[in-house]
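ok so I'm stuck.
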Amino acid sequence: MAEPRPCTARNETPLQRADRNFVELLQELRVTQTGVQILFAFLLSLAFTSRFEGLDTVQRVTYVVTLLLAVLAAALFTAPAALHRSLFQQGAKPRIVQVSSRLATAGLSVLVFAFSGSVLLVVDVTTGRTGGIIAGAATFLTCVGLWGVLPRLVRRASGSASAPGGAGTASVTAAGSGGPEGAERAS
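replied:
not stuck anymore, here's the structure
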């Protein structure tokens, strides 16, 4: 049987590209998963502190919602490993990469709210409700800016800086796209 024709500027076959994109996605997930685990551990420990009894209703609701968001983010970030394990050696790698990338994107979306809720809670308890709301909103806007707006700006700038499909475009677009889907478009 003939070798499949390379399909990218890197001279990769579709399966080689899927393998590379999955490895890149797993590297991204390792970074985010650590942050989620630290946040989750912090939130779990709060309920067992002496100060927890003094929280008002809004603070308790914020705590529970934020804890559940952290759990959901952790589940979304670990789902690609479970998906890969379930479909291992079944020829589904390109689909695994596509679905896993979407799971990771959803995880980042949920994580924005978990981060914002955590900051809201901590600042609310330490300085007051107004400070908490401001800090939570600032956290939300910072994450949306860095994780959502910045990649779009980099993608737009890289598209106008060189010809579409050029070597410079592929490396910048893949790095600023938010994951393997962008790498697939660029590769």
